[in-house]
Amino acid sequence: MTVDEALTRLASTLEADFQIAPDRITADAHLRSDLGLDSLALTDLAFLVQSDFGFESDPEAFRGVTTLRALAEFVTRHAP
Amino acid sequence: MRHEVAARRLGRLAVVERVAAVFDEGTFESAGAAGTEDDDGFHAVVGLVHARPVLVLATDFRFSRGTLSGRICATAVRAMARAPNMPIILLLDSDGVRLEDGEAAVGGVATLLAALADVSGHVPTIAVVCAIASGAAAYAAALADITIAVDRRSFAFVAGPAVVGAALGQQPGLDALGGTRLHAEHSGFVHALARDDGAAIRAARAVLAYLPSSAAALPARDDAWSAPAEQDVAAVLPAERTRAYDIQHVITRVVDQDSYLPLGASYGPAVQTGLARLAGRPVALCASQPRAMAGAIDANAAQKLARFVRFAAAFNLPVVTLADTPGFLPGASSERARILVHGAKVISAYTEARRSVPLLAVVLRRAVGGGGVMALGAHALFGLPGCEVVGMGTNAAQALTSAQGEASLGSLRGDYGMLSIIAGADVRRSLVDALARAHPPLPAPEGARKCSLVPL
C-alpha cells in the first residue's frame, strides 16, 4: 500500500466516522489543531485504524503521529 | 465533541442504550417516564436486575462532556435517598466537575461523593467506566466496591492530559495517564476489563447476581448449578513441592462449573480473588497463585485481599480460602511498599470477617506467615496430605506438619479449630458440607451496614 492509498482511506474514515468536513482533511492537516480531534478521539482513531488496516500497535506508538500524512506513513509501515 | 459514529464502531453505546442494557428486559422505563429522572443528559433510573430493584446513575458525554453540575449531583443524591436498599450501578462517561457551574457544582460533587461514601458497605456499588472518568467521576468509581472498565478504550484519572500539561508541563498520553492496563495492574482501581460497553455492563450484571441487595440481606442461591466434572485437586498439584502451578486449575475443580468470576486478577496477582458458588451458594474466593512470586503476598496482594475479605463480610458472603503461600513477601522493597501495614489489614479483615460470615480454608501445600493468617482463623480448616501450616509470630508460632497423612496439631485447637486432612478429591465435597453446616452469615440490621468499604 502506498502512502497516497493510505491517505485516501484515512480521509474516508475521518469524514464518515468523525464527521469532519472533506475540505478540512488535507495530507498536512494537524490531527488536533486542524481536525479538532481530542485525546479520546485520537485514541478511537488509532483503534479504528488498526482494525481497518489489520494490524496491532501499542497506543504509545501513535503519540508521535501528529498529522494525517504521518498517520498514513505509520499505517504503511505497520499494515500487512 | 464525541464522535458518535466512530464510537459506535468501537462498541460504545449511547447512554440510553447503556442504561437499558443494565436492566432485565421489559423492566426499564425510558427517560422521562414515571420512575426516571433525566437532567442535562443525566439518568437516574430504577429497574430490575435479576428481578431485584437496582438504581442506575448514568452520565451523558454529549451534554457538556458529561460533567457534573450542581443540579445533576442533587438529582443523583435525591435518587439515592429514594432508593435506600438498592444496589447502585454507575455508568461513567464524564469529565468530572462542571467548572462553569461554579460553587454549585463543587458543592454538589462534594455532596454526591459523600453520599456514595455513606452507602459504602450498605448496598453494593458497581462502577462501569465506559469511556472517560475524570476527577470527581473517577472518585465516584473509586468509592464503588467493584469497578469495571472497557479495555484499552476507557480512561480514569484525577485530571486529564490538558490539565496535567498545563499544571505540570507533562505530556502523557491517555493510556499512560489513566489507561486500563495501568489501573488493572498497577493501581488496582479497575477490577475487571471488558471488550466494549455491552460486555462491561453484562459483567456488572454478573457481579450483582452473587450479591445481596444490601448488607441486611443474604445473597441468593442459584439452584441451576453443576458440579465440576473433575474434582481431584491433587491431580493438578505438581509432585515437586516447590514447583509453581496455576491456581485456576484448582479453582475450576472446586467451585461450581463456570461460576468463578475473577476480580482484580492482574493487581497483586499472587493472591487471586473472585466470586464463585459452591452448590449454588455465592462465596468469596481467595486463593494463592503459586505461579506469581510463588504465592508470596506482596503489598498489592495484601491490600487487595484485605479489601476483598471486608467486602465479602459486608455483604454476607462466606469466605473460602485456598492457601498455598510462603507468606508475606520479605525484603527492603516490600518494606518500602508498606507490607507491614497492608499485611495488618489482612489480619484485621479476616478477624472481623470471622465474626459474621463463615470462613472456610484449605491448605493445599503450605500456609506460612500471612498464609497462616488466611487459614488459621477459619471455622472449617482443611489440609491436603503433606501440607504445612506455620502460625504468626513467635508467641503464636505453632507448626503443623502433616507426615504420612497425619497432622500434628500441637496447641492449635480451640482458638483456631481443627485442621482436617482430606484427600484432594474431597476438597469440594468437604467445603460444600462445611458450608452447609456452618452458621449462616449474620447480616446487618435493616438499613444499617457492618462497616464502610472505603478502600484503605
Explain what this protein looks like in three dimensions.
The complex is a heterodimer of chains A (80) and B (456). Chain A contains three helices and no strands. Chain A has 80 residues and is mainly alpha-helical. In chain A, α1 (3-18) packs across α3 (68-78). The longest helix of chain A has 16 residues, at 3-18. The mean pLDDT of chain A is 93. The radius of gyration of chain B is 23 Å and the shape is globular. The longest helix of chain B is centred in the N-terminal third of the chain and has 18 residues, at 102-119. In chain B, β5, α5 (136-142) and β6 (146-150) form a beta-alpha-beta unit. In chain B, the strands form two sheets. In chain B, strands 9, 10, 11, 12, 13, 14, 15, 16, 17 and 18 form a ten-stranded mixed β-sheet that branches. With 456 residues, chain B is of the alpha/beta class. Classes of the chains: A mainly alpha (80), B alpha/beta (456). The interface between A and B is medium-sized, with 17 and 21 residues.
Please report the two chains with the greatest interface, counting residues with C-beta closer than 8 angstroms to the partner's C-beta: A-B, 17 and 21 residues
Gyration radius of chain A (Cα, Å) is: 11 Å
> N-to-C terminal Cα separation of chain B, in Å?
37 Å
Helix fraction bin of chain A: 40-55%
SS-derived structural category of chain B: alpha/beta
Mean pLDDT of chain B: 89
3D shape of chain A: globular
Layout of secondary structure:
The complex is a heterodimer of chains A (80) and B (456).
Chain A: H1 3-18, H2 39-53, H3 68-78
Helix pairs in contact in A: 1-3
Chain B: H1 4-9, H2 15-22, E1 36-39, E2 42-49, E3 52-58, H3 70-82, E4 88-94, H4 102-119, E5 125-134, H5 136-142, E6 146-150, E7 155-157, H6 161-168, H7 174-178, H8 180-187, E8 192-194, H9 197-208, H10 247-254, E9 261-263, E10 271-278, E11 281-288, H11 299-314, E12 319-325, H12 332-336, H13 339-354, E13 359-368, H14 370-376, E14 380-383, E15 388-390, E16 399-403, E17 406-407, E18 419-421, H15 427-437
Parallel strand pairs in B: 3-4, 4-5, 5-6, 5-7, 6-8, 11-12, 12-13, 13-14, 13-15, 14-18
Antiparallel strand pairs in B: 1-2, 2-3, 9-10, 10-11, 15-16, 16-17
